[in-house]
Each structure stands twice: as C-alpha cells, then as structure tokens.
Description:
Blueprint: H1 19-23, H2 32-61
Amino acid sequence: MAEIIPFPTLVSDTPLHDHDHEAAGTPSGDSQVDQMLQARARIQKVLDELDRLNGALKTSFAPPGIAG
C-alpha cells in the first residue's frame, strides 16, 4: 500500500484565514492550505483505487490455488 507523507506542521503565527486574503480577492475558505488539503484527499483516493486495482489484478492472474 502506498504511504502518504504528512504535510509539514505550520509554524507561522499568522491565522490561516487572514483578512489580507479576502482583501486580495481570495476568499478565506479557498486558501493555499485548503487547496493543498483538498489535493491531498484527491491523491489519497487515487492511491486507494490503485491499491484496489492492484489487488484485483493479483487475484485475477494468480495461478489456481495460490492466494495473492
């Protein structure tokens, strides 16, 4: 199974939903951190699907009587 490496811990004292983002036209809910977390969730779904398909391939190509 694939391993997901966690994102580094944020060390900034600046709040994630800073008013500067809103002033720049980016809503606070659409911050870079939110985008990274959403991307990570999508990557995890893809990796889970690849693991599932890999398991299905192993069982479909395994000789009779041998479990994958």
